[in-house]
Design a protein that fits this description.
29% of the residues lie in helices and 27% in strands. It contains four helices and eight strands, in the order ββββααβαββαβ.
């Protein structure tokens, strides 16, 4: 973490390229300045930046005019880290709007349980911010996300990884006979 935002001249620390079927389609960035504009912005190729409504706490941070600059920057840094997953979910909803899900009478093919998701092509630090609900470990060039998830939480985790351009190598569920779930299973 940098002491002050003005001292940092490199790439933005909370900026993520977004992908759709392996093709870069835009970028998700956390903006700090001016204070009133703090938040997550979606920038698609050829369009102006669009502020995403991620969490009321981010809006509250933009209205904070009383905190000292250094304190406010620390609050903003923490806000960026804690809201990364929410920002990816919001960006994904903008990019791929889904009709309201109707309640099914019968059980979905995915079920709650213990999952292990093997991911390549995404840095471990980025995965830690984007799927914070799962334990992360790395083996060679594959990152393993592991933990208990509901079916919707599993779908959200898989969508976040895909949106970041990650390659899902395998998904294992402790309750299935074969252990492996294809990406078609999450529909």
């Amino acid at each position: 973490m940098w002491a002050e935002p003005e001292e940092h001249a490199g790439p933005r620390p909370h900026a993520y390229d977004l992908f759709d079927e392996g093709r870069r389609i835009g970028r998700l960035e956390w903006w700090l300045r001016p204070r009133r504009d703090v938040g997550w912005y979606l920038m698609l190729e050829g369009t102006a930046a669009r502020k995403l409504e991620v969490d009321p706490a981010v809006d509250e941070l933009s209205r904070d005019t009383t905190s000292a600059d250094h304190d406010w920057f620390l609050y903003a840094e923490l806000g960026a880290i804690l809201s990364t997953a929410l920002a990816l979910d919001t960006a994904e909803a903008v990019l791929h709007p889904r009709p309201q899900a109707q309640r099914r009478r019968f059980r979905s093919r995915l079920e709650a349980g213990h999952y292990e998701i093997h991911v390549a092509d995404v840095e471990p630090m980025i995965l830690a911010h984007t799927v914070p609900e799962l334990h992360l470990s790395s083996v060679s060039n594959v990152n393993v996300l592991e933990g208990n998830l509901s079916a919707p939480a599993l779908q959200a985790a898989l969508r976040r990884v895909a949106l970041l351009g990650g390659r899902i190598v395998a998904v294992f569920h402790s309750g299935t006979d074969a252990g492996w779930l294809s990406q078609d299973d999450d529909e």
